[in-house]
Each structure stands twice: as structure tokens, then as C-alpha cells.
Amino acid sequence: MRTAAPKIFGILGSNISYSLSPQIFRILFDKYDLPHGYFIFDHAEKDLPSFVGSVLTLGISAFNVTVPHKCDIMQYLDNLHRTAKDCRSVNLVVNRSGRLTGYNTDIFGIRKVFADAGVNNFSNLRTLIIGAGGTARTVLRFFQSKRAKDIFVINRGRKRLHDMLSEFALPTHGRRIAAYQKTRSNANLKDLEWDIVFNATPVATSKLLPKTAMQRKPLIFEAAYGNRIATVTNSRDVIGGIDMLLYQALRGFEIMTRCRIDDYKKEKAALKRRLRQSFA
């Protein structure tokens, strides 16, 4: 029997009609016998102030945040959990008595996916991050915390790349980090080698890197679950995508509802099966 009061949840982003989050959370609400609703809040950046006002007026309990608002939403929040402070990025906002707190559960998803792939020691690994948005900030913090041997970053725009590195007080070129603007990077990248490539953009890695940059057959982490990994060549494996999405959603579900997930891996597998069945 359902005893919890109905609550409103959702996901904030722009042009996100494709999002699987409503389906994921409705499956979880049903499994845990919760009478909550989950909706898409599709808004442009200029609409963020009015959206935040609506959250408070309507009493929306929590909302996930996706592209392109993971960084911009931070200025409208009252508090930041240490995960959001560390990553300079928010993908979950919880409304507690009219005060909004930002969290980052993406880093949980990244950590779990790497662990499932058996990658736990990064001290001898050369890593490449593609992108400079909220997810790129998160994985940059993750690689820093894991003391990766080298961290390379490329991004299409110079300003956003510079802004990201500045937020972490990092130089564009140093002993352990090097940054390149994408439009000028191919000449530099063709002679570099990585053990891990983390693609934090919606464009498949195979369309972003020259084939000569994949000679070491790196492990590819595609953060966007819509990317087709079959197009990637010269890679020993491809991870991420839907698994990262599901892990971060499970951690977010715990924070939003205060329900406890006893076995993340088992719960993730069950969610994955349910999603496949719905598309069969």
C-alpha cells in the first residue's frame, strides 16, 4: 500500500525530448511503490530564473539537470553538496523547504562504470577528455582524484576550455595537463597516445579524433548514451553511455526519495532489462 504523499520530480535541459530519465524514474517509482510523477522541463538558458521560481512556487521536490545547464544552474542554488563543489557541476537539485541544494551524481556513475570495467588504478594511465561542459568538469575532477599520470583536454571553443581549467586553477599546459582547442588540435593529437579517452560530448568519438590518434587502442568512455560505439575503430573496448546514466540515476533516486539501493549493480541490470523490453 502506498503511504507516501505524491511529489513532482523531473529533468531540466534544452531540447531533451529524447531523455530516458522519465522512463527510468517511473520504473523505480513503481518498483518502490511511490506515487510520484517525473516530467521533462525543457527550457533555454534565458528561462532558468523563471524556471527556478516555478520550482519554488509549485513545490517541485527535485529535478535532474542535463545539457546544457549543469554549470549555469549553480548560480541559482542556495547550497552545493561537496560533490557539486568538487566537480563544479550539478546534475541534481533537491528542494528542501524552499532551499535548493545541488548535487553531482555523475561522478558516482563514472566511478562505478570504471570499476565494472576493472579500471581502478589510474596512476600510470594517460587520459584524454573531449569537451568542457558539466560532464567534462566531473571527469576532470575524477581523474585528478585518481592521480592519473597525464590529463589531456580538447574542446571546440577556446573560452569554455579556458573557463573550465581556470575553475580548477589549472594551467593550459603543465607537467600533468595539456589543453587544445579542437579546431587546431588534429596536428597535435596525431602524435599523442592515450590509455583512456573520455568523450563528454554528444558526438561520437570516431567523428572527433583522427584515426592516427587511436594507435594505442585506448579504452573509450562515451558519456552520451545515444552514441553508437560500433563506429569507433582502433579501440580495445567502449564503456559508459547507458550504464553511467543508470548508475547516476540510482544514486539520485536515493537522494531524492531517501530510499536505499542495496545492490547498485543488480538494480542497474534490472533497469537495463526493463528499458530493453520497452523498446523491443
Mean pLDDT across the residues is: 90
First CA to last CA: what distance?
31 Å
Architecture of the largest domain in CATH?
Answer: 3-Layer(aba) Sandwich
CATH superfamily of the largest domain: Leucine Dehydrogenase, chain A, domain 1
CATH topology of the largest domain: Rossmann fold
* CATH class assignment of the largest domain: Alpha Beta
Number of helix segments?
A: 9
Q: How much β-strand is present in the residues?
A: 15-25%
- What radius of gyration results from the CA coordinates? 19 Å
| Lateral arrangement of strands in the main beta sheet | 2-1-3-5-6-4
- Give the helix level as a range of percent: 25-40%
Count the E strands: 12
Report on the structure:
- This protein has 280 residues and is α/β, with parallel strands linked by helices.
- It folds into 2 domains: 8-104 and 243-279, Leucine Dehydrogenase, chain A, domain 1 (Rossmann fold); 108-240, Rossmann fold.
- 35% of the residues lie in helices and 20% in strands.
- The protein is built from 9 helices and 12 strands.
- It has helices at residues 21-31, 48-58, 82-87, 106-116, 134-145, 158-167, 186-189, 242-257, 264-279; strands at 8-13, 37-42, 62-65, 79-80, 92-96, 99-103, 126-130, 150-155, 177-181, 196-199, 219-222, 237-240.
- The strands form 2 sheets. The chain has a 6-stranded mixed β-sheet with strand order 2-1-3-5-6-4. A 6-stranded parallel β-sheet has the order 9-8-7-10-11-12.
- Helix 5 links the parallel strand 7 (126-130) and strand 8 (150-155).
- Helix 1 packs across helix 8 (242-257), helix 4 (106-116) packs across helix 8 (242-257) and helix 8 (242-257) packs across helix 9 (264-279).
- The longest helix is centred in the C-terminal third of the chain and has 16 residues, at 242-257.
- The radius of gyration is 19 Å and the shape is globular.
- The mean pLDDT is 90.
